[in-house]
Amino acid sequence: MTESRTGKHPALVVDGVEFGYVSDTTVLHDVDLSIDSGEFVTIIGQNGSGKSTLVKNVVGLLKPDQGSVTIYDDDGTPYETTEQPMNVLARYVGFVFQNPDDQIFHTSVQKELTYGLKNIGVPEAERQERIESVLDAVGLSTDGSQNPFNLGKGQRQRLAIAAVLVMRPQTIIVDEPTTGQDRKESKRIMEILQEYNDEGHTIIAITHDIALAAEYTDRVVAIRDGDVIADGPPERVFLDEQNLKETNIRPPQITQLGAALNDRLDADILEEMWLTTDDAFEDTIDALSEGEAVTKSSRKHQ
Ligand SMILES: Nc1ncnc2c1ncn2[C@@H]1O[C@H](COP(=O)(O)OP(=O)(O)OP(=O)(O)O)[C@@H](O)[C@H]1O
């Protein structure tokens, strides 16, 4: 099992987890992962590599076939997910679905945000205070009576996030929060998560957007075929060419990544690499991994 990285108590420990949806097909293979309280982690990997399956095992929506998942509250008290009902786990770990429409099911914003709070027994006066504060935090201005299905996609995504934040769980897991959002909306969502991380919450975000991962998070976990293949700071994970290939990261993302990592790509190269060539990709990775500035003159393939 992985040791604590930060010296703080863990937020969650995944220990030897195996999981398959149908017998004789395993999606997760003996996964070990430990995330400490207060970390901001991104999980990356190709489509179908098992990212969502892993986090659904963490939040208790799925139960491991082998191994265990333990989550921890603010004080470091452990709760093994197979032994706890969902309404107990929801106090300590919150999950924002990939598609907000799979999560939102009430006919008003107010009801959507009240539902979970009632389930965990938060008194009415505190419920209202929490709802107002979370709507403010995610930038949704509504009196609460609005039907969520009349909101835009970005607003529905932020409502889905708000429905988890309002519960104030120690750990918040968000499955591809920026998919289908424009750059401005994506950054806004990452900034909301950053603010909660600054307040001490553990944040785990699945994302295909490696530039956002590099910009906002301290640690990247790369998954391939239901196994963790890399785990470390973005500058280490993303500068390993094999990791990038195995997690299917290709240009133009690599140019955004370079800029997010250290601002070392000059504007000409950035523009050129949007045109996407394997040579450009490999040259840039070579240069970045050697700690070089990437400029037109440093490129081998012109
Ligand atoms: N409900 C399900 N029933 C059967 N198989 C499933 C189910 N959900 C996912 N799978 C399969 O499990 C594997 C892992 O899927 P999962 O959704 O965890 O991957 P992912 O890395 O999150 O993918 P994506 O990036 O596309 O969301 C895939 O082969 C997928 O087809």
Secondary structure: elements and pairs:
Blueprint lengths: L9 E10 L8 E9 L3 E6 L5 H9 L6 E7 L5 E3 L5 H4 L3 E4 L12 H11 L4 H15 L14 H13 L5 E5 L7 H16 L3 E5 L3 H7 L2 E6 L2 E6 L1 H4 L3 H6 L6 H10 L4 H7 L4 H12 L13
Parallel strand pairs: 3-8, 3-9, 6-7, 7-8
Antiparallel strand pairs: 1-2, 1-4, 4-5, 9-10
The structure holds adenosine-5'-triphosphate.
Task: Please tell me about this protein's structure.
- 38% of the residues lie in helices and 20% in strands.
- It has 302 residues and is of the alpha/beta class.
- It has a six-stranded mixed β-sheet, with helices on both faces. Strands 2-1-4-5 form a four-stranded antiparallel β-sheet, covered by helices on one side.
- A hairpin with a 2-residue loop joins strand 9 (219-224) and strand 10 (227-232).
- The chain starts with 9 loop residues before the first strand and ends in a 13-residue tail after the last helix.
- Residues 264-277 and 294-302 have low confidence and may be disordered.
- Bound molecules: adenosine-5'-triphosphate.
- Adenosine-5'-triphosphate binds next to helix 1.
- Adenosine-5'-triphosphate is lined by residues 21, 27, 45, 47-53.
- It holds the Pfam family ABC_tran.
- This is ATP-binding cassette domain-containing protein.
- Belongs to the ABC transporter superfamily.
